[in-house]
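STRUCTURE:
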């Protein structure tokens, strides 16, 4: 039988405690509460808000009408499940909720909207009609004629669609993936059966089975594949499988094929030991069915590749054993000189990998055109007044031609440097000692020990001048190894003894130039610091032709000269309410040297450098060297970059160096044309021998809220490539179409 309707206040509470039913008679209509004993103690306590509540018997339950909100309370309050609807029927004994009209279900990670549905509160399961599921934190929308919540974190969908686009009533999203059935797993992936990608409502791709990441946490599973198409490689497919090994390690395996080249594969392993220690190692492999011919020579450089087993192995690692003991590893091995230039745009290509490593480790790889690839393992240990450094360095020679001598390997290099005061004397003792074993397959190698102790003392010239005098001795010992076709006509044990003197004199002047003063004691000013300086260097001239030449240390140029210069610093300072803030505004330095040994032309080039940031977002820099004996400017480098609040950016680097025959302009422009459309353009132009444009590229990027299309044309001196790339937000790269001309 049904009790009469109870017109109650907006807030009513169901408490599952043993209180006699007589309590119902004691509750007046204004008490805003009623209580009912439950037989099943496993059920949680729930709070119901509604415009109208009606208690029913046989079965025991509650009918709620108008702006109904059902949420847990008491010891179950941390539970995040909330139910909102126009009408709700709640059966107390079974914990079943039937809801109709504007149904909204909220959990810790998900949100469900439906026209109607049923929820079992104790099992956290339910079935919803004409429903939309917003899953996780990656804005993934899943809709279905029927969505069944099969567990706390699992769902089954019938006649479903998946997208990260905003869903508007009456219109199809920009893209969606439809399927006959879909399952959201506890691991956080959407498994789709008979999946089709649709642009608006037009199907463009079909897959009988597809797995999509439906969660931001790392979980094992297939990632979205990469499709490509180009004239040189043909149609390409690369399928990545992500493997979550542990909370601090994971891997991605790649399987694919290029229809005109052959099978390709790859693997990437990542680990994180702590907030500063991490490592990433990546391998790419291609079984290339093609070879270079005279008519089809990549880059037209005369190098005809015949190798079919092609690879690139790279990696980096930083490890902080302690704050003062740090190890670093850089690995870069490639099968042939063309591999990095041929394959540069895909998931495993040079450009995206270089950017990824640069962002993670703040150091990328050598340029893809460099043929001698360096691999290093470094370990450094620092104390308050001393440091030790060790290095192993190997070189991967991709020239693939007989070259003698072959590149030098350092196996190992050990360096010790330190500084300490000498008793109570106004003296500092410093040293820098280095041992290197240079190994090479062909040519001269050997051991080198370089010892350079030094004493430095201040000179008392009064309170307005800073002066120091330092002197050192340098002893360099060699034990030379002769490999293969190398020749050496003198003793294999050699040494060199040198001494040098250095004197420094400087002073510092400073003044503030007030720009404005406010009524509230706020001020703006420029602080100008100027520092004139003199430096004298002496190093005697000795014959060093009896020494091998491994690097720049083996040939030290004699010095007997004076360097004089003027350094200037400008800081923009503001004072408000006694607080002072400042930023670098400009820096300018000019210097020149005079060589006392020279009979003719003792003056060096005048060197000048200026850097300024006149307004936030604008950076300007200029360096130059000017010859005073009629040769004019021998070097200059002008750099400029401007970024505005919209994100537009313009940069330029105009470079000239007479001794190297280099004269280039590199510039780049990125413009936000509209909220949805951006353009990028970059160009490298050589002014040497009428070479003209070395490379340029134009990118047009359309980026609505849930997908991106990038069209690019790249032209180099020997290649013209057009490319279109589609990316789906939350999913990744969908398709890359390229063509070489």
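SEQUENCE:
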């Amino acid at each position: 039988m049904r009790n009469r309707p109870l017109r109650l206040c907006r807030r009513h509470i169901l408490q599952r405690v043993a209180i006699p039913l007589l309590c119902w008679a004691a509750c007046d209509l204004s008490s805003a509460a009623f209580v009912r004993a439950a037989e099943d103690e496993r059920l949680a306590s729930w709070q119901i808000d509604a415009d109208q509540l009606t208690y029913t018997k046989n079965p025991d339950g509650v009918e709620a009408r108008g702006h109904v909100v059902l949420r847990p309370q008491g010891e179950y309050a941390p539970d995040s499940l909330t139910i909102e609807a126009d009408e709700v029927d709640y059966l107390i004994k079974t914990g079943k909720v039937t809801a109709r009209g504007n149904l909204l279900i909220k959990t810790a990670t998900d949100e469900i909207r439906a026209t109607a549905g049923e929820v079992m509160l104790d099992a956290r399961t339910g079935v919803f009609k004409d429903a939309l599921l917003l899953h996780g934190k990656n804005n993934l929308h899943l809709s279905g004629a029927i969505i069944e919540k099969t567990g706390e974190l699992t769902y089954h969908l019938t006649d479903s669609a998946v997208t990260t686009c905003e869903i508007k009533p009456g219109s199809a999203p920009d893209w969606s993936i439809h399927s006959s059935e879909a399952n959201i797993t506890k691991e956080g992936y959407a498994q789709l059966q008979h999946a089709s990608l649709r642009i608006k409502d037009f199907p463009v791709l079909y897959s009988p089975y597809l797995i999509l990441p439906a969660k931001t946490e790392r979980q094992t599973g297939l990632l979205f594949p990469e499709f490509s198409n180009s004239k040189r490689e043909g149609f390409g497919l690369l399928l990545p499988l992500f493997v979550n090994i542990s909370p601090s390690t994971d891997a991605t395996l790649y399987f694919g094929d290029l229809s005109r080249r052959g099978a390709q594969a790859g693997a990437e392993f990542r680990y994180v030991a702590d907030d500063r220690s991490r490592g990433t190692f990546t391998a790419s492999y291609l079984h290339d069915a093609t070879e270079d011919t005279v008519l089809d020579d990549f880059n037209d450089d005369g190098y005809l590749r015949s190798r079919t087993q092609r690879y690139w192995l790279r990696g980096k690692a930083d490890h902080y054993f302690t704050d003062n003991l740090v190890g670093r590893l850089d690995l870069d091995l490639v099968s042939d000189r063309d591999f990095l230039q041929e394959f540069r745009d895909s998931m495993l290509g040079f450009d995206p990998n270089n950017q990824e490593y640069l962002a993670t480790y703040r150091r990328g790889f050598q340029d893809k055109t460099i043929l001698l690839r360096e691999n290093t393992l470094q370990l450094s240990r620092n104390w308050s007044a001393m440091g030790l450094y060790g290095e192993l360095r190997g070189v991967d020679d991709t020239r693939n031609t007989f070259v003698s001598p072959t590149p030098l390997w350092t196996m190992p290099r050990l360096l010790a440097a330190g500084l300490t005061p000498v008793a109570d004397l106004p003296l500092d003792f410093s040293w820098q000692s280095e041992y290197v074993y240079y190994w090479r397959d062909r040519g001269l190698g050997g051991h080198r020990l370089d010892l350079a102790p030094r004493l430095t003392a201040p000179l008392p010239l009064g309170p307005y001048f800073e002066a120091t005098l330092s002197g050192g001795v340098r002893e360099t010992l060699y034990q030379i190894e002769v490999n293969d076709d190398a020749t050496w006509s003198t003793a294999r044990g050699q040494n060199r003894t040198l001494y040098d003197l250095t004197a420094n004199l400087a002073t510092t002047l400073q003044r503030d130039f007030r720009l404005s003063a406010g009524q509230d004691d706020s001020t703006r000013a420029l602080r100008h610091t100027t520092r004139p300086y003199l430096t004298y260097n002496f190093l005697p001239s000795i014959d060093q032709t009896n020494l091998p030449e491994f690097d720049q240390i083996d040939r030290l140029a004699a010095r007997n000269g004076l360097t004089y210069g003027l350094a200037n610093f400008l800081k923009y300072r503001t004072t408000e309410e006694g607080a002072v803030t400042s930023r670098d505004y400009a820096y300018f330095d000019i210097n020149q040297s005079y060589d006392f040994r020279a009979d003719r032309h003792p003056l060096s080039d005048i060197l000048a450098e200026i850097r300024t940031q006149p307004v936030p977002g604008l950076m300007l820099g200029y360096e130059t060297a000017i010859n005073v004996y009629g040769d004019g400017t021998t070097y200059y480098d002008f750099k400029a970059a401007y970024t505005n609040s919209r994100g537009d950016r313009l940069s330029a680097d105009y470079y000239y160096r007479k001794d190297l025959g280099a004269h280039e302009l590199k510039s780049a422009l990125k413009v936000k044309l509209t909220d949805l459309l951006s353009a990028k353009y970059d160009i490298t132009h050589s002014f040497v021998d009428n070479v003209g444009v070395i490379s340029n590229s134009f990118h047009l990027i359309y980026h609505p809220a849930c997908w991106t299309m990038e069209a690019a044309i790249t032209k180099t001196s020997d290649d013209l490539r057009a490319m279109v790339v589609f990316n789906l937000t939350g999913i990744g790269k969908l398709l890359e179409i390229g063509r070489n001309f």
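REMARK: The longest strand covers residues 466-483.
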